[in-house]
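Researcher: Re-running this chain for the archive, since the previous output was lost when a drive failed. Same request as before.
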Amino acid sequence: MVRDGGDGGRHNPGGWLGAGATERCKRTSTQSTTAGEFTPQERARIQRQLDRESQNIYQQKHDAQDRNPNNGINERQQNQRERIQQGVRSGELTPVEAARIRRQEAQIRLNEARARQSGGEFTPQERARIQRQLNRESRRIYRQKHDAQDRNP
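Model: Regenerated structure tokens:
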């Protein structure tokens, strides 16, 4: 059975197997065909190759080798800024609500910068504290976007 990690190829621009793996499988399949049909042994061999390539992709995807641990915080902050902008554009957030949320987001960024400068290292405890602040702010954004205030009088 082929396991692709469930991402449907989103994390691999060359498709779910990648360019190299796809070429190897194509080469194998074209070498094996006689009249366009595969023998059971050929099918099993090709399936094993697909399974191996799929496992390699899964392992590379989940080895966290090139992940920057700071990206989680930076990505969340960017996502929350986009949520605020979308809320203002759609009328779900009033300008006053958006300004209040943006002030709090700025405070979180300031806390993050102080934590990074305090000892030259961003400790797991500091990271957890920033994540909790971001969680709180995310809930605040949601509540403000879904409250019953009239934004378009």
